[in-house]
Structure formats: C-alpha cells, structure tokens
C-alpha cells in the first residue's frame, strides 16, 4: 500500500478516537455545571415536586452513564436530541406534547451555516492576504515594509476583538457609510446582500487572524533561506522572488498549513465576541445563551461541533503537510 | 591563453559578535580560459569563501572589504545585483559539496536543471530537457532518459553529485566553481564522479576552480594548485612542480601527513583470549536484516580497522557490540565471557569496559557543560570519585590527551577547535578506564594535520594503557597508518579479514582490490592509469562486474 494512504487512514482513525474521547469529556464537563435546567427555569420558588417532574420529563433522573450512551447513540445517527428551552413540558400542561419539542438540529442548523459562511468569507480574504504578506515580508526582510507589516499585524492581534470591531464600524459604517454596521442576516437573503452584511465582521476577523499566519509564513520561509539549496538557487542567478516562491515556499508549507488550520478552527469556534458586536446570528451566541440557561443538549451539540471542526481541520492540515513532502509522496 | 578571471588583492571579512574579522587577507588569483585551478587548505583556510567570491557572491554576514573580481571585463564586486544574476548560472556556475542538500527536495532533478537555461533565456524547456539527458549520458548516469524525472531523495549521493555537475553545465558556462564535490562520497563513488567531472570539463573547455582539502584528488584534477592557510596564500605552482618540489614548510607538512605509520606488532599468541570476540552476529532494524553472520576477534593492545562503504554495516556492528542494538543471532564475548546482548542487562562493570568515541565531536558533547563536567561525569559514575579526587582525575585525563588542564577544565565545548573537541571525546572514553574503545570515524570530520594528531594520540594511549580499538573508517589512509588487523565489510557481510600487511598486498578479494585501488594517490597520472586499467567507458560498473 502507498505509505501516504496508510498514514491518512491512521490519522483518520486517530481523529475518530479523539472525537470519542472529547465526547466523554464534553458530557462530563457539561454535567458538572452547577445547577440544572429544572432549577434554572423554575427559579428560586421551585417546589421539589415540580423540579423532580421536569427532571423526569427530560430524563435527567437517569444515571449519567445511561444518558451518555443514549446521547452518543443518537449523535452517531445524526440525532442530537431536543432542546430543553424549546420543549413543551407535557407533564405541566397535561397533554402529550413531545412531538412539538424543537430538535437541537433544527435550532443549530441555520446558525451553524451562518457561522460557516462568515468563516468561509473571512478565510477567503485572510489566508491569501496573510500568506502573500508573509512572502513579501520574507522577500523584503528587515526593510521598512517588513517592519511595518509586522507592527501592523501585531497591533491588530493584540487589540481586543470588540475594539477592532468598533474601530471598523466607526470608519466604514459611521464616518463613511459604506457597509452596514448590523449583520442581521436571514435565511431567504440573496448572496449579494448576505455578503455585504457579512463583510464588516469578516474584516474584523481578518485583522485578528492575519498576524499569526503572516508571521509563520515569514518565519518558515526565512528559516529555509540559509539552506544549501536556496544558496544553490541564488548561485544559479534566479531572481529573489522566484527563489522564495519556487524554492523556499514548497518546503515551508507544513508549518504554514498547520497555522492556517488552527486559525480556521478559531474562526468557527471562537468568534462569539464579534457575533455579539455585529448581532450576527452565529453558533457562538447560541452556545453562550444555552450555557446560561443550562440547555444541556444544545450545549453538548455545540461543543461536539466545535470539537469536530478542530479535529477535522487539524486532520486536513496533517494530511496536506504529509502530501507536501515529496519523500512521502514519492517513496524510493 | 586569454585571461578569464582576475581577482586582485581580495580582502574578505566575516561578522561575528558585532565585529568584522578577516577571512581572506589580500589574496590574488587568476585563471585562464579552459584552465583548472586547485584551491587547497584545511577547513577555515577560506577556500569556499574565496570560491564564492570568484562568483561575486558572499554568504550572509560576509563581505568583500577590498579588492576587485574581474570576470571577462566585468568587475563583480562593483556590479549590480541584476548584472551578477545575469552571469550566475549562465556564465559562472557552482557545484556544491553536498548535492543531497543542494538539490531542492520539492522539485524533480530535471526541473531544477532546466530552470537555469529557461530563466536565463538560453534554451526553451523541452530543448533544455533533451540537453539534460545528453549531459546525463555523458556523465555516465544510469538511465539518462529517465533519471532526471526522479526526486533528489530517490537518487544516490554519487549520482546526485553528477546530476549537479550536469546542472552546472546546463548553460555551458565559461567557469565552474567545484566546492569539495567529492568529499562526502565513498572512495569507489568518488572515482566515478572525478572522472566524469574531468571528462566534461575537458570536452567543453570549461575553466574551473576546484576546491578540496584532499591533495591526491586535486593532483588528478588541477593544472595549477594554490595553497591557502588561514586566509593567506602559501604558494601557487603547476601541479607537477608542486607535488615534486613543494617550497613552503606548510605545504611540505601537508604532504607528510600520509606518512604516519605504526610499526607492525608481533603476531598474537595462538591461545590468547581475545578482549572482544564477535561470533556470528546477525542483526537488523525492524524486519530487515543489515548484518549477516559477522565474526571477528580483537586482541589486547591491538587495533582492528573495520572498513567499507557507507551502508556496509560498520556502525551497525558497533551498535551491536555496545548493546544498543541487540543482534538477532550470535554471541559477543568480552574476555572469554559472553556479554548480555542488551546493554540494559549488562552490569556497570561490563558497560565500563566498552567505551565509544564518535565521529561528530560537536554533537557528542553537551554544549552546556564545561569540559570538567563532561569528563567528570563518567569519573564519578564509574569510579565513584567526588570532589577533589574527581577534579584531580579529570586533570590527569586532560594531561593524557595533551591539553593543559588549568586552561581547559572550565571551558565550554564551543570554545574549542574541532581537534580539541575530539580529544575531549577521547578523554571521556578513557575516564571509564575501559579495555576496549570503539572509534567511529573519529577523524573523518577533521583536517589531515589535526586528524594525524588524533591518530598519534590514540596510538600513544594504546601503548601506555594496553587498549584495544575497533576503528571504523572508510579512509584507507587511516587504516594504513593505525591498524594491526583489517576487516572489510560489504552489504552487511565480512568479505575479507586478516593482518594489515596481508591486506595491503595482493592477492586481495576483488572488493578489497576495488577499495584499495580507488584511493587517490598523489601521482597526477594516477586517475588516467587507473581508468585505462579498468576500461575507460564504464569505470565503476566494470569494476563491480569483474568482482561479481
């Protein structure tokens, strides 16, 4: 078997194993949150009977191991359970209302695609921008351009996200009304309008993630510039830009790809502040709200999606790093 | 003859710790069209720096402080980067020491070959590819139509070195700088590369600067030889005159290195128990065996040289004896008693008796420990000495390796030269008071003069302490000077073994013959004669066929 194929299979299996372990951790952690949904929703005046009734209704009275495997079995089949907050409590109203309970999938679904859309737009802007900036910084290393690029990206990564967001709103929405400052998007919006509304949060996130990727690109390339094959390329009279793009970059791909993957994962899992500032209906807000009211199925589902995104992106990065190595692609 | 390159009063400086230190001090160099100049000297002599300066190129942190490099009417010191880029690769080409490191691992060999001609607008891509295949054929590379489409890691070191020479030829330059092109190769491979380089340089009338520290090699390649010492020119002469009548003392001392030879020792008593006896070991990594049924004995006070090309299993044998790699089959006896095969099962005393000295003293010494700590560690571990006793013992050991204790005991390895570091490696091995030391290519990273010092020291220690050595090397000159017995290995098997005198006298095993005849000699006609003997067309292969 081709060794690359074997390595990829190994990584896939490892990824699945990681996901399983993470699901255990998520379940345990979520169940360790102080207080539960019944107490949270009924408030301080709750009678023990009412609390117990709701718990029974939601299955919270069963032992955690049973609940975990029920949840896992459902999740494997694509059923993430029903949201507590949207539930219609049968025992309260006295009717069999469980058919009306909103499923977690329905609740998360549109939000998830919104988040993916924002992450996608940001990635399309940020990744090429950061890599090209990194290449240019490596090409003109220690020049004024290099120093400016480093300073600019460092400043943007060091500033709090909401601050960057407000600065962009100030300049691009208030002083020069070019873009809308609110990103409330709907399911039936056209692509153009959707893009326009997403642009400001995407630009904010671009500022946040560029520094890391740009600096890694620059460092990975400069690291290689002392290697004999780069000296050889120079001694062949190859132009400096070609030396970097053609000779250094292909060998610097592995670390760059890894940093890109980490930042893309951040775009999916870590954007709640930006969502709040722009009122963008993404998954991050839903997650924070659900934690507040102990809506455990939604919290678990969000965690699982975040973990899945991290694992999938890192897996992709691993596989691409492996593919960027000719020794593995073309064995002896 | 018309002048191609004139370097006048070249001063080059290198920056370290914010200070510019001199590397080359006012050296002149000139080269006519089609002429080959040999540039020799020890490491640190400035040979490579001088060679790169001939291309108007300086590494980072190096500058040409003064002087002019006139290449065919263009001053490369004053020329702009664009002008130089137009010349590099096209009219002046470079062949680096390690082809494996100097080919870009991400691209196919032929892509790197055609890059120069296409970028300089000399030829189109397909024309250059055809030309590459012709050059590969001229350089006697196997499968010239196909080999270029491999990646560098799929091709052997000797083949890569020839592919790099072909690449240098791709634009038919007027001048090629060869920077130690065969230093990293085995002797048998070296011959093929040397012959290929010489042929093609002759054929295209290319001028060349051939940089090396190996006198015998330069004698085969150069019309004229220039000797450098710490950035100064020692002397320049035509090759034959230089070899027969070196004028300067330094040049004479370079010539004399190869004359160090130990007297033959009396034969070992028949029934004497060998210190180390390796009996029929078979070993490998993973599922693949790389050693097959290897046996030899090493007696007290004797040196057994284990020779062979890289990959022949020399170092694996050493790993088996030390217990780092337990063999699958076979016995290793020490003083007639079988040693546990795994080092973890050996007693402290058994471990103490077998010590090792490594090829790269640089990486074998902890850079953060002082010399006193490095040598003191085994003194304390094996001998249980502490405090003042330990320090006294370390001082004794430093005295034995001829380094003044008071000056060196508190230094860090980075403050020592390569030869001094290797001496520390020896002292560390001696600290355990072993009876047997494995020396793994201990002199191959050192210059000839320094290497000779190390060999003399090892010989002296052997006489004083009755040490037994297993001396792993691919350099037959070293074998000649230090060994009592020789074990020749090839592809994991012992092909011949016996006392040194017998080994260096015919008849040999054909492989030993190939190894011996491949060692360059000082005679400038040596390569010609050898090629004629072996049949010029297919030097290396012919020899191998003869053997099989």
Question: What does it look like?
Answer:
The complex is a heterodimer of chains A (332) and B (548). In chain A, α8 (161-175) packs parallel to α12 and α11 runs antiparallel to α14 (296-323). Chain A is 75% helix and 0% strand. The model of chain A is unreliable at 90-100 (pLDDT under 50). Chain A has 332 residues and is an all-alpha fold. The longest helix of chain B is centred in the middle third of the chain and has 18 residues, at 187-204. In chain B, β17 (436-440), α18 (448-465) and β18 (468-473) form a beta-alpha-beta unit. Chain B contains 23 helices and 20 strands. In chain B, the strands form 4 sheets. A 6-stranded mixed sheet of chain B has the order 6-7-8-3-9-10, with helices on both faces. A 6-stranded mixed sheet of chain B has the order 16-17-18-13-19-20, with helices on both faces. Chain B is globular.
Short recap of the structure:
Chain A is mainly alpha-helical.
Give me the side-by-side strand order of the main sheet of chain B: 6-7-8-3-9-10
Mean pLDDT of chain B: 86
Supply the number of helical segments of chain B.
Answer: 23
How helix-rich are the residues of chain A, as a percent range?
A: over 70%
Tally of individual helices of chain A: 15
The largest contact between protein chains, plus residue counts on each side, is:
A-B, 23 and 32 residues
Q: Please give the radius of gyration of chain B in angstroms.
A: 25 Å
Task: Give the class-level CATH name of the domain at 114-285 in chain A.
Answer: Mainly Alpha
Domain ABC transporter (chain B): 5-255, 276-516
Membrane topology (chain B): Peripheral membrane protein
GO cellular component, one term (chain B): plasma membrane
Protein name (chain B): ABC transporter ATP-binding protein
């Amino acid at each position: 078997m081709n060794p690359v194929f074997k390595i990829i299979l190994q990584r896939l299996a490892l990824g699945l194993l990681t996901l399983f372990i993470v699901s255990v951790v998520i379940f345990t952690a979520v169940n360790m949150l102080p207080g539960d949904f019944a107490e949270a929703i009924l408030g301080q005046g709750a009678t023990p009977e009412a609390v117990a009734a709701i718990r029974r209704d939601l299955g919270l009275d069963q032992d955690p191991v049973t609940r975990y495997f029920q949840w896992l079995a459902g999740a494997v089949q694509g059923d993430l359970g029903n949201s507590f907050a949207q539930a219609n409590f049968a025992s309260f109203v006295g009717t069999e209302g469980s058919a009306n309970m909103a499923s977690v999938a329905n609740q998360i679904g549109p939000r998830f695609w919104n988040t993916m859309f924002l992450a996608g737009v940001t990635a399309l802007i940020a990744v090429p921008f950061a890599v090209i900036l990194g290449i240019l910084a490596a090409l003109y290393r220690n020049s004024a351009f290099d120093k400016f690029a480093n300073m600019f990206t460092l400043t943007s990564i060091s500033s709090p996200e909401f601050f960057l967001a407000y600065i962009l709103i100030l300049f691009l929405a208030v002083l020069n009304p070019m873009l809308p400052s609110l990103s409330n998007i709907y399911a039936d919006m056209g692509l153009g309008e959707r893009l326009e509304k997403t642009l400001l949060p995407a630009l904010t996130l671009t500022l946040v993630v560029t520094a890391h990727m740009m600096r890694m690109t620059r460092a990975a390339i400069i690291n290689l510039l002392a290697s004999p094959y780069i000296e050889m390329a120079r001694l062949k009279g190859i132009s400096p830009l070609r030396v970097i793009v053609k000779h250094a970059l292909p060998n610097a791909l592995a670390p760059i790809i890894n940093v890109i993957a980490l930042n893309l994962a951040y775009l999916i899992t870590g954007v709640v502040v930006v969502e709040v500032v722009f009122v963008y209906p993404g998954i991050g807000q839903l997650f924070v709200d659900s934690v507040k009211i102990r809506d455990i199925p939604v919290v678990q589902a969000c965690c699982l999606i975040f973990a899945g995104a991290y694992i999938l992106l890192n897996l992709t990065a691993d596989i691409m790093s492996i593919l960027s190595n000719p020794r593995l692609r073309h064995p002896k | 003859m018309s002048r191609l390159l004139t370097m006048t009063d070249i001063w080059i400086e290198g920056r370290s710790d914010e200070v510019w230190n001199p590397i080359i001090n006012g050296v002149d160099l000139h080269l006519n069209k089609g002429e080959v100049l040999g540039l020799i000297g020890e490491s640190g002599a400035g040979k490579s720096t001088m060679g790169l300066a001939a291309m108007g190129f300086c590494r980072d942190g190096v500058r040409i402080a003064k002087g002019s490099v006139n290449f065919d009417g263009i001053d490369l010191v004053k020329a702009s980067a664009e002008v130089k880029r137009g010349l590099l690769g096209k009219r002046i080409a470079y062949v680096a020491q390690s082809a494996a490191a100097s080919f870009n691992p991400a691209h196919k060999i032929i892509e790197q070959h055609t890059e120069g001609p296409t970028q300089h607008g000399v030829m189109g891509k397909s024309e250059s590819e055809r030309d590459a295949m012709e050059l590969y054929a001229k350089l006697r590379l196997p499968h010239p139509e196909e080999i270029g489409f491999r990646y560098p890691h799929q091709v052997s070191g000797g083949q890569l070195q020839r592919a790099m020479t072909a690449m240098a030829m791709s634009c038919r330059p007027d001048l090629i700088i060869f920077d130690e092109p065969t230093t990293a190769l085995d002797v048998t491979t070296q011959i093929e590369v040397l012959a290929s380089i010489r042929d093609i340089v002759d054929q295209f009338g290319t001028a060349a600067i051939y940089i090396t520290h190996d006198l015998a090699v330069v004698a085969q390649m150069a019309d004229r030889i220039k000797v450098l010492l710490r950035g100064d020119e020692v002397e320049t002469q035509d090759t034959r005159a230089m070899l027969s009548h070196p004028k300067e003392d330094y040049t004479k001392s370079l010539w004399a290195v190869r004359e160090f030879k130990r007297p033959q020792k009396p034969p070992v008593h028949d029934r004497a128990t060998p210190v180390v006896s390796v009996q029929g070991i078979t070993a490998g990594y993973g599922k693949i065996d790389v050693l097959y049924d290897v046996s030899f004995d090493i007696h007290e006070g004797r040196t057994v040289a284990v020779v062979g090309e890289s990959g022949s299993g020399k170092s694996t044998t050493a790993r088996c004896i030390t217990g780092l790699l337990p063999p699958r089959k076979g016995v290793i006896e020490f003083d007639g008693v079988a040693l546990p095969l795994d080092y973890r099962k050996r007693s402290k005393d058994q471990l103490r008796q077998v010590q090792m000295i490594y090829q790269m003293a640089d990486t074998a010494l902890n850079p953060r420990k002082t010399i006193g700590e490095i040598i003191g560690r085994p003194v304390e571990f094996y001998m249980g000495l502490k405090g003042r006793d330990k320090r006294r013992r370390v001082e004794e050991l430093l005295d034995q390796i001829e380094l003044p204790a008071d000056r060196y005991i508190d230094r860090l390895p980075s403050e020592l030269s390569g030869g001094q570091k290797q001496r520390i490696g020896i002292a560390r091995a001696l600290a355990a008071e072993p009876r047997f030391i494995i020396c793994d290519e201990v002199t191959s990273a050192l210059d000839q003069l320094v290497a000779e010092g190390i060999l003399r020291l090892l010989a002296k220690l052997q006489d004083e302490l009755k040490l037994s050595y297993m001396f792993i090397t691919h350099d037959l000159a070293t074998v000649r000077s230090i060994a009592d017995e020789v074990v020749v290995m090839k592809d994991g098997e012992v092909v011949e073994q016996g006392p040194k005198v017998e080994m260096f006298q015919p008849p040999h095993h054909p492989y030993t013959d190939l190894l011996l005849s491949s060692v360059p000699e000082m005679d400038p006609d040596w390569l010609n004669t050898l090629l004629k003997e072996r049949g010029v067309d297919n030097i290396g292969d012919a020899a191998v066929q003869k053997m099989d």
